[in-house]
Amino acid sequence: xxxxxxxxxxxxxxxxxxxxxxxxxxxxxxxxxxxxxxxxxxxxxxxxxxxxxxxxxxxxxxxxxxxxxxxxxxxxxxxxxxxxxxxxxxxxxxxxxxxxxxxxxxxxxxxxxxxxxxxxxxxxxxxxxxxxxxxxxxxxxxxxxxxxxxxxxxxxxxxxxxxxxxxxxxxxxxxxxxxxxxxxxxxxxxxxxxxxxxxxxxxxxxxxxxxxxxxxxxxxxxxxxxxxxxxxxxxxxxxxxxxxxxxxxxxxxxxxxxxxxxxxxxxxxxxxxxxxxxxxxxxxxxxxxxxxxxxxxxxxxxxxxxxxxxxxxxxxxxxxxxxxxxxxxxxxxxxxxxxxxxxxxxxxxxxxxxxxxxxxxxxxxxxxxxxxxxxxxxxxxxxxxxxxxxxxxxxxxxxxxxxxxxxxxxxxxxxxxxxxxxxxxxxxxxxxxxxxxxxxxxxxxxxxxxxxxxxxxxxxxxxxxxxxxx
Amino acid sequence: xxxxxxxxxxxxxxxxxxxxxxxxxxxxxxxxxxxxxxxxxxxxxxxxxxxxxxxxxxxxxxxxxxxxxxxxxxxxxxxxxxxxxxxxxxxxxxxxxxxxxxxxxxxxxxxxxxxxxxxxxxxxxxxxxxxxxxxxxxxxxxxxxxxxxxxxxxxxxxxxxxxxxxxxxxxxxxxxxxxxxxxxxxxxxxxxxxxxxx
Lengths: 470, 198
What we know:
The structure holds two protein chains of two kinds. Helix content of chain A is 49%, strand content 20%. By secondary structure, chain A is of the alpha+beta class.
C-alpha cells in the first residue's frame, strides 16, 4: 500500500498513540510489584511501590490510588493516615467529577479503561468498613457514627441504582452489620438494633438464608436479639427467636466488655480480559440483535442511538464484533478457617461475614448484559464513524479501523488489595488484660497470632489480615 | 487529508450524552417548609409535620390546664426520655423533639430539665466546680429541679412493597407520664403514609 507524505502526517502520531491506548497489559500486571508486596505482607514496600507506580498518577485512577493507599495504611496500622486517603476516595465518589460527557465519550470512542474509575458497588461500600474500623481504632466514636450514617446513604444509593431489585446486589448486609457495630460501640443501642435487624432481614428474605456466599452469621443473630432485649423490645425478641429458630439467653454480665475480631483472609479476585464475538442479526422484521456464535446471548440493538438504516449498513459491512470484557480470576486461599481463644477459657470459630470473591463474580455476572450492550454500542459507533471517514479517505478509514481494533480493551481495574473474605466473631472480655489467640488453619499449615486486649467494659474492635495466596 | 466527518463525530458525542446524560451539580436554597419528597424515606417534612402536630396537641390538651390549676398556676416540669425507634430506618427523633422543647421553653407553658448525656455532662461540670471554682460562684449539689413528667415515645413503621411500588406508613407516638404516679397524662400521635412508585 502506497502512503503519501500527506498521509504520513497521520500515520506517525497514530503509531505513537497506539501503544498508549492499546497496551495488552491488564491492571494487575501493570502494578504487579505493589500487589506482590501486599500479598507477602511487606506493607511498607507496598506503600512505596504505590507511590512509584506511574499508572496511579493518571487522573482517571485517582480513586484506585486512594483506595489502595488507604488500605495499605490500614494494614500498617496507620489509621489516621488511612482515613485521609479513604476520605479522599469517598469525596471523589460523592463529589462532582468534571465533565461526564467527556469521560463517557472517551470510554465509547477509545475503551472503558480510559474512563475515570468509579469503583464497583461493593468496593464503594467497603470504604465505609475501613473508615469505620479506623475511627474505632482511633477512639473517634463520633466520627465513626458519621461513617455509620454514611453507610445508610451508600446503601440507599445502591438500592436506587438497582431499582430495589431483590434478585440483584441492591443491599449490602455486611455494611449494615458494620454499621450496627459502630453504633453499639458508640453506645447507641437503638440504632445498632435497626442496623442488625436490617442486615438480618436481608438474609431472611432469601430462601436459603444466604446472601452472596455468606450464611446468616450466628453472631448477627445474637447481636440482634441482645440489642432488642436491651431496649426492651420483647415482641421483636420473640419474632426473631422464631425466625432464627433459637432461644435467646441473656448473656452473663462481663465487666470487661467485649472485642469484635475481624479477620481478613486472602485477596480479592483480579480482573483479566476475555474476548467475546458477536454478529448482528435480524430476528423478525426490523428487530436487530447482537448474538454470540453459539446463539446463547441476545443483546438487542439500541434504536434510540441509531437510525434503523444504520443497522442495515452495519450488517452489510460487518461479519463479527470482537468485544473485550473483564472477567474475574479467583486468588486461591492459603488459610480456610480460623478459631479464636481467650485465655483458654473461651473459644469460638470465626464466621464468614463477607465473601468479596463471590460478590465480585456475581455482580459482574449481573451486569453482563448491560455492560455488553454498552460495549457493542461502542463498537457500532466506531464502525459507523469508520464508514463516514472512508467516504472521504479510504486510507484514513483503514487506519481508524486498525486503531479501533487495537484500542478495544476491557477495563480490568479493581481494588485488588481487598480480602477474598472477611470473618468475624465477638469475644467477651474480663476486666484488665486478656490474651487473645487467633489460630489460622490452612490445608497443611496452621498459624497462631496473639494479641493482648485490655477489657474496659466497652465494645472494642480488632483486625488481622492474612493476605497470602496459596 | 484525514478529516473526520462532522456527522460521525457529532453522532459519537451525542450517543455518549444520550447514554449517560449529564448536568453539572446545581445547588438551590429552598424554604425549609417546602415539601420536597425525593426518595420516599423519612425526611425534613415528616419531622416538621410531626413536630407541629405534637406541639399543638401537647399544649392544647387538658393535662396542662389541670396541672396549673392543681398547683396554683405553676408550670409542669418535663424531662425528655427515650424515643424508641422501631422502624426500619435510622430516624433521628431529636429533630422534632427539639422543636417541641423549643416551643415549651419559648411559650413558657412547660418547664424543661435536661436529661440523658447532657445531664451527666452538667453534673460533671458541677463536680469540677467543687474543686476549681471560687466558693462564691460554685454551684451546689442537690438543687436540681425534679421533673413532674417524663416524655417518652416510639417510632414505628410498616413497609408494604411489591416490585416497583411501596407504601410506607410511619406512626410516631409520644406520651407524657406522671413521674410520681406513673399515670399517663397525654398521648400525642402522628401518622404519615407515603406511596412510592419507582
